[in-house]
Amino acid sequence: MVPWAVYHAYGDLEMLQNQYDSMKAYVEAELRVANRPSLFGHKKFLWDNNPFQYGDWCAPGEGFSKWTQKGKYLSTSFMANSVNILCQSARALGRQEDEERYSEMLRNILKAFERYCILPDGRLKGDFQSNYACALYFNLIPDGKKAGAAHRLAMLVRANDYRIATGFAGTPYILFALADNGYVEDAYRLLQNEKCPGWLYTVKAGGTTTWERWDALAEDGSIRTDAIPDMISFNHYAYGAVGDFFYRRILGIEASAPGYERFTVKPIPGGTLTYAEGNLKSRYGSLSVRWERDETFTLHLTVPEGTVCDVVLPNGETNSVSYGSYVFTVN
């Protein structure tokens, strides 16, 4: 939820305090809708009975009916994430009673998800890319079954020849779900795929903005005619969420404390990239990262005053540094 993201980025506890009641009301609304009786069957602590969900909206090669049908599989992952954010917010604000209550609710959701949604080998009921991406990213899958789920996601990605198959729900998380679970090169191949649908396909097609539909423009240059006209926007942010992966995995910048008072830099190189460079403007100043790789891996790092950076290099070497500029080189 937005207030938690803002607090995490800027460390503004007063803002989080002011928005807490609205966050709590939103979570309660989710839980209320998820737990109402249904003629179609309902498992307690799962959001599986809403008559309408946008689901995996705009997943390529599918239409409205298929997108919305996937909602019954995806909704619980997002509800669990909302409850988890509220738990963390309550902890940050010292609201112990709320933290305990929603922590118990989260445990119940995770137990129900494992019982009803995960097969013994780690595959999910609802065998599609976004379902695995969201369940893995939001930590709904227990450690003992995570490898099986990640393997199945990688197999789905490979079977689709590294063409993206996620809609709005799964796209922000699929690269994380792969890279964080042992499939770094699969994540990079998915990211760097130039065929339709894919991020670089839009670049090759001349796109200077992200599109609403992966396949809004066909490979022969024609605009698709089998879709609702106002759903073929060529300036639509959703798939631009991949930028989060650029910062948090390619550059490796992660806030360890609100406002980046302490942060980690753990670059994950892969694919055909030989270098990456970027900076982030925190409340303490600009932190910048650049890395290059050939026979060796070299990291250039600038740490703002008043912060601490925990550096994790690709070979596992770690360092903790404060204000200043640094260069690290490993084989």
Q: Which runs of at least 5 residues are low in confidence (pLDDT < 50)?
A: none
Succession of helices and strands: HHHHHHHHHHHEEEEEEEE
Radius of gyration: 21 Å
Sheet having the most strands: 4 strands, mixed
| Sheet/helix structural class | alpha+beta
Q: How many helix segments?
A: 11
Oligomeric composition of the shown chains: single chain
Distance between the termini: 40 Å
- The average pLDDT value, as a whole number, equals 94
By DSSP, the count of extended strands is 8
Coarse morphology: globular
Instruction: Supply the number of structural domains.
Output: 2
Enzyme class: hydrolase
EC number: 3.2.1.40
InterPro entries: 6-hairpin_glycosidase_sf, 6hp_glycosidase-like_sf, Alpha_rhamnosid, Bac_rhamnosid6H, Bac_rhamnosid_C
Protein name: alpha-L-rhamnosidase
Short description:
This is alpha-L-rhamnosidase. It is an enzyme of class 3 (hydrolase). The protein is of the alpha+beta class.
What do these coordinates show?
Strands 1-2-6-7 form a 4-stranded mixed β-sheet. Strands 3-4-5-8 form a 4-stranded antiparallel β-sheet, with no helix packed on it. Helix 1 packs antiparallel against helix 2, helix 4 packs antiparallel against helix 5 and helix 6 runs antiparallel to helix 7. It is globular. By secondary structure, the protein is an alpha+beta fold. The longest helix is centred in the N-terminal third of the chain and has 22 residues. Helix content is 41%, strand content 14%. The model has no long low-confidence stretch (mean pLDDT 94). It has 2 domains: 182 residues, Glycosyltransferase (Alpha/alpha barrel); 80 residues, Maltose phosphorylase, domain 3 (Sandwich).
